Amino acid sequence: MKRPPDWRSLMVHLATMRLSRRPAPPLALALLAALLVQTAVMSQSPPKIDVSKLGPQVGERVPDFSLKDQNGKPWTVQSIMGPKGAMLVFYRSADW
Protein backbone atom coordinates (compact mmCIF):
# COMPACT_ATOMS: atom_id res chain seq x y z
CA MET A 1 0.00 0.00 0.00
CA LYS A 2 1.37 3.41 -1.02
CA ARG A 3 1.46 6.09 1.66
CA PRO A 4 0.22 9.60 0.86
CA PRO A 5 3.02 12.18 0.67
CA ASP A 6 3.65 14.36 3.67
CA TRP A 7 3.51 18.17 3.46
CA ARG A 8 7.28 18.61 3.14
CA SER A 9 7.63 16.32 0.16
CA LEU A 10 4.54 17.88 -1.44
CA MET A 11 6.00 21.38 -1.06
CA VAL A 12 9.34 20.24 -2.48
CA HIS A 13 7.51 18.67 -5.40
CA LEU A 14 5.51 21.84 -6.09
CA ALA A 15 8.61 24.03 -5.82
CA THR A 16 10.59 21.92 -8.28
CA MET A 17 7.83 21.47 -10.88
CA ARG A 18 8.55 22.97 -14.25
CA LEU A 19 5.96 25.28 -15.70
CA SER A 20 4.30 24.07 -18.85
CA ARG A 21 5.31 25.85 -22.03
CA ARG A 22 1.86 25.35 -23.52
CA PRO A 23 -0.43 28.39 -23.74
CA ALA A 24 -3.17 28.64 -21.13
CA PRO A 25 -6.49 27.16 -22.24
CA PRO A 26 -9.27 29.64 -23.12
CA LEU A 27 -11.34 28.58 -20.10
CA ALA A 28 -8.49 29.45 -17.74
CA LEU A 29 -8.10 32.86 -19.40
CA ALA A 30 -11.85 33.48 -19.14
CA LEU A 31 -11.86 32.55 -15.45
CA LEU A 32 -8.88 34.82 -14.79
CA ALA A 33 -10.60 37.71 -16.60
CA ALA A 34 -13.81 37.14 -14.62
CA LEU A 35 -11.83 37.12 -11.37
CA LEU A 36 -10.10 40.39 -12.25
CA VAL A 37 -13.40 42.07 -13.19
CA GLN A 38 -15.09 40.86 -10.00
CA THR A 39 -12.18 42.14 -7.91
CA ALA A 40 -12.39 45.55 -9.58
CA VAL A 41 -16.15 45.75 -9.02
CA MET A 42 -15.88 44.75 -5.35
CA SER A 43 -13.15 47.32 -4.67
CA GLN A 44 -15.42 50.23 -5.64
CA SER A 45 -17.20 51.97 -2.79
CA PRO A 46 -21.00 51.84 -2.78
CA PRO A 47 -22.83 55.02 -3.82
CA LYS A 48 -23.77 57.48 -1.08
CA ILE A 49 -27.43 57.33 -0.02
CA ASP A 50 -29.31 60.57 0.68
CA VAL A 51 -31.17 59.61 3.87
CA SER A 52 -33.24 62.79 3.75
CA LYS A 53 -35.20 61.25 0.87
CA LEU A 54 -35.92 57.93 2.63
CA GLY A 55 -38.76 59.02 4.90
CA PRO A 56 -39.50 61.07 8.00
CA GLN A 57 -36.45 62.52 9.68
CA VAL A 58 -35.68 62.76 13.39
CA GLY A 59 -37.61 65.64 14.93
CA GLU A 60 -39.87 66.11 11.91
CA ARG A 61 -43.59 66.54 12.65
CA VAL A 62 -45.86 63.82 11.29
CA PRO A 63 -49.05 64.68 9.44
CA ASP A 64 -52.39 64.09 11.12
CA PHE A 65 -53.46 60.47 10.79
CA SER A 66 -56.00 57.99 12.06
CA LEU A 67 -54.97 54.33 12.17
CA LYS A 68 -56.47 51.24 13.77
CA ASP A 69 -54.49 48.99 16.06
CA GLN A 70 -54.59 45.17 16.13
CA ASN A 71 -57.87 45.31 18.11
CA GLY A 72 -59.57 47.71 15.70
CA LYS A 73 -59.34 50.75 18.03
CA PRO A 74 -58.63 53.97 16.07
CA TRP A 75 -55.65 56.10 17.11
CA THR A 76 -54.84 59.67 16.00
CA VAL A 77 -51.83 61.89 16.53
CA GLN A 78 -53.71 63.81 19.21
CA SER A 79 -54.72 60.60 21.05
CA ILE A 80 -51.16 59.30 21.40
CA MET A 81 -49.48 62.64 22.14
CA GLY A 82 -48.28 62.94 25.73
CA PRO A 83 -46.97 65.95 27.67
CA LYS A 84 -43.45 65.40 26.26
CA GLY A 85 -44.59 64.37 22.80
CA ALA A 86 -44.65 60.91 21.31
CA MET A 87 -42.26 58.56 19.62
CA LEU A 88 -43.39 56.59 16.60
CA VAL A 89 -41.51 53.42 15.78
CA PHE A 90 -42.06 51.73 12.44
CA TYR A 91 -41.33 48.02 12.52
CA ARG A 92 -41.36 45.83 9.46
CA SER A 93 -42.14 42.24 10.31
CA ALA A 94 -40.87 39.25 8.39
CA ASP A 95 -44.44 38.19 7.60
CA TRP A 96 -44.95 40.70 4.79
Topology (elements, then pairings):
Layout: H1 7-16, H2 26-43, E1 66-68, E2 74-76, H3 77-80
Antiparallel strand pairs: 1-2
Describe it:
By secondary structure, this protein is mainly alpha-helical. It has a domain at 55-96. Helix content is 33%, strand content 6%. The chain has helices at 7-16, 26-43, 77-80, and strands at 66-68, 74-76. The chain has a two-stranded antiparallel ribbon with strand order 1-2. A hairpin with a 5-residue loop joins β1 (66-68) and β2. The protein is elongated. The model has no long low-confidence stretch (mean pLDDT 76).
Instruction: Count the DSSP helices.
Output: 3
Rg is 32 Å
Mean pLDDT: 76
Strand residue percentage: 5-15%
Helix content: 25-40%
Number of strands: 2
List the helices and strands in order: HHEEH
| Low-pLDDT ranges | none
Instruction: Identify the overall geometry.
Output: elongated
Distance between the termini: 61 Å
- What class would the helix/strand composition place it in? mainly alpha
- Spatial order of the strands forming the largest sheet: 1-2
Largest sheet: 2 strands, antiparallel
